[in-house]
Design brief:
InterPro entries: AAA+_ATPase (IPR003593), AAA_lid_NorR (IPR058031), GAF-like_dom_sf (IPR029016), Homeodomain-like_sf (IPR009057), P-loop_NTPase (IPR027417), Sigma_54_int (IPR002078), Sigma_54_int_dom_ATP-bd_2 (IPR025943). The chain is an alpha/beta fold and 484 residues long. It is built from 18 helices and 14 strands. The chain binds adenosine-5'-triphosphate (ATP).
């Protein structure tokens, strides 16, 4: 397979022209993180690897475009870069070069001076459009090179869909509890132990599962997701364990491997494990304990070596008590548990998600990045986001589509959120001051308790609120909050 380094003269010539016309510096790296072309400061670095953990490396790993408008303020995106302290770049836009669904390089514009930074900020939409276009040209040139090298003259189809291999670089968050979860998750990537990820819908359970897999030792092996609640019970068994030819009416004559076989030597991600029917639970237990499966309608024992990562939003403990989830299976899947907090328990991350998704969708839709009105941002930080990150992502995508003014405002919100906002406002308008204060008090108490969920320290909560323990008990009772 031809690498961008094979077309480095073409890449350098293009970079020089772009830099001359746009007055920005240009840099291109290949799939091995080697700079293959560069202008200005980066010209002297051509042929050398880019610093470990750099922003371009992240784009290469995740296949997602990105931009930094002020490196001094937006420290998150460069936090793993070993060159971060010495770097003098002010702003960057980077775009993955994606060939057949796989990122094979990155091209980007860089601004070192305040003027260059201004150009990047003000024309981000057009610049990302250029980058997308040039990245396509580079891929075509690469395919041509490949055809010349292999003598294969058939033009193959291009697929520029960014790949979906998520690593820890794709995970956003700076909340202290969330970061400590990520730190623990990084520790267990290389181990084959079974993992369970708990959390509400849209909190990033699959994203974390992927990161654990793709940063693990077997990251070149498959990651196979299965949603246990989306497949009807009668089909789930054959989906998971496969079937032999003629096992049931409508079965393929030659049989079919199941997801466990497909995931062999890699990872199977069992989403919504709480919905796994009782009838199938012994079979899963057998995979965990004996590392083998039997296809439906077959009698051959097939050895299986997969890492199992499961996820659920259900209360498995109470399911075990009720007898709808097997206790032995519960313990087998619960070896390394993680709980991802819902967004409302880490509101400090909301501005980060807002700016991340605003940039992402502006780049994808070739639009200039809009500002967000301060009042709206505050309101969104206080919104409860029942659908968590998936919901914030969809809401921002909707807003970027709707916005025309360059400043995101309440009118740009999706209707269902706007209706809720209006309703809240109406309720508040018809509420007396005492009721508003009481509602606020209840909210604060619930927030303090939820951040102390593992072990509720009532004296600590009372102290942090500057009230006595007796007053805390009185207030909890008044609001009907029971802790035990
Ligand atoms: N910390 C994060 N940083 C960046 N993106 C995130 C983060 N968490 C979630 N997302 C994004 O939010 C969306 C939902 O995430 P994901 O599907 O992993 O959630 P989930 O908990 O598995 O959802 P469900 O329970 O509905 O299956 C995805 O697009 C994912 O990339």
């Amino acid at each position: 397979m031809a690498s961008i380094s094979k077309i480095k003269d073409f890449a350098q010539e293009y970079s020089d022209n772009l830099a001359r016309i746009l007055g920005l510096d240009v840099s291109i790296i290949d799939q091995n993180n080697i700079r293959v072309a560069g202008t200005g400061f980066h010209q002297q670095l051509v042929g050398k690897p880019v610093p470990k953990g750099s922003f371009f490396e992240t784009i290469l790993k995740t296949g997602q475009p990105g931009m930094i408008f002020d490196r001094r303020k937006d420290s998150q995106k460069c936090r793993y870069c070993i060159f971060n302290e010495q770097c003098t770049e002010l702003a960057t836009i980077g775009f993955p070069i994606v060939k057949k669904n796989k990122p094979v390089g990155v091209i980007g514009f860089i601004g070192f001076t305040p003027e260059q930074r201004k150009t990047i900020v003000e024309h981000s939409g057009d610049l990302s459009k250029y980058l997308k276009h040039i990245s396509g040209l580079i891929v075509n040139k690469l395919l041509l090179q490949e055809m010349i090298e292999t003598g294969d003259c058939q033009i193959r189809e291009l697929d520029s869909t960014p790949s979906k291999r998520h690593t820890f670089d794709s995970i956003i968050g700076k909340n202290a509890d969330f970061l400590s979860l990520i730190k623990k998750a990084r520790k267990i990537c290389k181990s084959p132990s079974t993992v369970i990820i708990r959390g509400e819908n849209g909190t990033g359970k699959e994203l974390l599962a992927q990161a654990i897999h793709y940063e693990g030792k077997e990251n070149h092996k498959p990651f196979i997701p299965v949603n246990c609640s989306a497949i009807p019970e009668q089909l789930l068994e054959s989906e998971l364990f496969g079937y032999e030819g003629g096992a049931f009416t409508g079965a393929r004559r030659q049989g079919k491997p199941g997801k466990f076989e497909l995931a062999n030597n890699g990872t199977i991600f069992l989403d919504e494990i709480g919905d796994l029917p009782l009838s199938l639970q012994p079979k899963l237990l057998r995979v965990l304990e004996e590392k083998c499966i039997e296809r439906v309608g077959g009698n051959q024992i097939i050895p299986i070596n997969v890492r199992i990562i499961s996820a659920t939003n259900k209360n498995l403990e109470s399911m075990v008590k009720k007898g709808t989830f097997r206790e032995d299976l519960y313990y087998r899947i619960n070896v390394i548990p993680f709980r991802i907090m819902p967004l409302r328990e880490r509101r400090d991350d909301i501005p980060l998600f807002l700016s991340h998704f605003i940039e992402k969708y502006s780049v994808l839709f070739n639009r200039n990045v809009p500002r967000i009105k301060e009042g709206l941002e505050k309101w969104l930080i206080n919104y409860d986001w029942p659908g968590n990150i998936r919901q914030i992502q969809n809401a921002v995508e909707y807003m970027i589509n709707m916005n025309e003014s360059g400043i995101l405002d309440f009118d740009d919100l999706p209707d269902y959120i706007l209706d809720e906002a209006n309703q809240k406002l109406n309720n508040q308008n018809s509420m007396g001051l005492a009721e508003m204060v009481s509602q606020f008090e209840r909210k604060v108490l619930l927030e303090r308790i939820s951040t102390n969920k593992d072990k509720i320290d009532k004296s600590g909560i009372a102290e942090s609120l500057n009230i006595s323990l007796t007053t805390l008990y009185r207030k909890l009772e008044k609001h009907g909050i029971h802790l035990d």
